[in-house]
Design brief:
- This protein is mainly alpha-helical.
- The chain has a single domain (about 5-100), classed as Cytochrome c-like domain (Cytochrome Bc1 Complex, Chain D, domain 2).
- The protein contains 6 helices and no strands.
- It has helices at about 5-20, 25-30, 35-40, 60-70, 75-80, 85-100.
- The longest helix is centred in the first third of the chain and has 20 residues, at about 5-20.
Amino acid sequence: MTGRHAAALMLAGACLATSAAAADVAAGRQKANACAVCHGPLGLATVPDAPNLAGQPAMYIAAQLKAYRGGTRQHEVMTMMAKPLSDADIDNLAAWFASLKVQVQPAP
């Protein structure tokens, strides 16, 4: 990795950390009420074709919502749901779902 790449990664990390620190988990929880129909009130999907969001990294959730909002990722429902979201809404939603703890256990 060159010094230039390392500097870019550090800058990206600092920007993400600042964004995550500024996110409001409580506001994200409130905003997530609209998501609960498919993704469940605690981020565990209630329909077969919706992913579980609980415990997903905030950076991943934010990137996916921005892709739906911008049209680079397509899904009939998600594109419609993401269109009106502001960057702050997305950061807050991402913080809420990332804050949910998931416990994984092996099958018996």
